[in-house]
Write a structure and sequence with these properties.
about 375 residues, single chain, alpha/beta, two-stranded antiparallel sheet, nine-stranded mixed sheet
Length: about 375
């Protein structure tokens, strides 16, 4: 089937600001993250970023130079990546060291104490001798891999007729981190409709002919250091998310012994569409391909993001109605109570339709369902 014309693609979004390099604009990004992401969501992190802003504003040239040195070969497409990386690196250091860490009571304890966050404790935790924290900031990227985001495939898979193994499913997670969302059907469902309180219908007992995760820097759930980093990317005191992470790691390790285990591939986003085309070609004829991403777009360089997006829309448009779906769970407005939007892209007629399924938090549990969008999605998923 021929490629769909460019006009069939959804309108191109406004180009984002240029990526930051090194420590360029760090103070500005810290202020934006504190204002737009943390203003009413986490006392400890809100206070920590405020303290760090104060340290950098009060002649913090030496500290700024340390950040620049750590990131001299890196760039950051979105304003919140470096602030979240700093927070997670400090938390990882506190978890690794234990109670002797200056910020352990704030970042490593089950019940965080914001009062431990002072200019002195933050400055000590970011001293040049804190090699663990600086090494983490140099080499790691924020990779939460929160399995609450698996609603991005479990709900669409149900709508596509994959429940109970009725239809073979090829599942692909783009930006998979450790791939934990690929086995989220082995975890308890937690999602409900905000308007009715009813459970969101999710696929169970799926017949997955493939479960593949793609990431430019995949984490290994069987490596303890990688699991520690996953824990560090969960905010202090969020015990429910932490418990779900531990359950997901256990499920992933159990799945590794089975022939149908999830696979992780090191691959940049722009190469994913071609890899998925090969996957479709090798799958049984009635297989449904469901590719999804959760809070990935903001971490991609603009050129890479545009190439990937066009490739995915072309992929969906090349195949018959009801054979493929690409789903995105991405931030829409960080200041909203439900800042993320779940969007499904499907073949419709001679083009691709992008349909809003609902809104949620970054860690979905309650979904503000777009009834009209879901109804239209059901119609376009009918095979024939």
């Amino acid at each position: 089937m021929a490629r769909i014309p460019r006009a069939a693609h959804p309108a191109k979004s406004v180009a984002p600001p240029a990526a930051r390099t090194g420590a360029d604009g760090l103070l500005e990004d810290l202020k934006a993250a504190r204002r737009d992401l943390l203003y009413a969501r986490h006392d400890t992190y809100h206070r920590l970023l405020g303290t760090l802003i104060g340290l950098l504003s009060a002649e913090g040239d030496a500290l700024l130079s340390n950040f620049d040195r750590a990131w001299r070969t890196r760039s950051f497409p979105t304003f919140y990546e470096r602030p979240l990386l700093i927070l997670a690196a400090l938390r990882a250091d506190a978890l690794q060291e234990g109670t002797s860490h200056p910020l352990h009571a704030a970042l490593g304890a089950a019940t965080p104490d914001p009062n431990v966050v002072t200019p002195e404790s933050v400055a000590t935790s970011l001293g040049r001798d804190r090699l663990g924290a600086w090494s983490t900031m140099t080499t790691r990227r924020v990779q939460t891999n929160d399995t609450s985001r698996a609603i991005a495939w479990l709900w669409p898979a149900f709508l596509a007729g994959c429940n109970g193994g009725e239809r073979p499913l090829a599942l692909a997670d783009i930006g998979a981190s450790a791939g934990l969302n690929l086995i989220a059907d082995h975890l308890p469902p937690i999602w409900s409709d905000a308007a009715t309180g009813k459970e969101i219908p999710c696929a169970t007992r799926v017949n997955a002919v493939a479960r593949i995760g793609f990431d430019s820097r995949p984490l290994n759930p069987e490596v303890d250091d990688d699991v520690l980093w996953l824990r560090a990317c969960i905010w202090p005191g969020d015990t429910e998310r932490l418990a779900r992470l531990e359950a997901a790691v256990g499920a992933m390790r159990s799945a590794a012994t089975r022939p149908s285990r999830p696979l992780l591939e090191r691959l940049t986003a722009s190469l994913v569409p071609d890899r998925l085309e090969a996957l479709i070609a090798s799958a049984p004829a009635d297989t449904f391909l469901l590719a999804y991403q959760t809070l990935v777009a903001g971490y991609l360089e603009p050129t890479e993001r545009e190439s990937y997006r066009r490739g995915m829309l072309d992929l969906v448009g090349r195949h018959v109605v009801g054979r493929t779906m690409w789903v995105e769970l991405e931030l829409d407005d960080a200041r909203r109570r439900l800042p993320a939007v779940l969007t499904a892209h499907v073949r419709a007629g001679d083009g691709v339709r992008s349909l809003r399924m609902g809104r949620s938090s970054q860690h979905p549990a309650e979904i503000e369902v777009d009834v009209a969008g879901v109804a239209e999605l059901r119609r376009h998923l009918r095979v024939g």
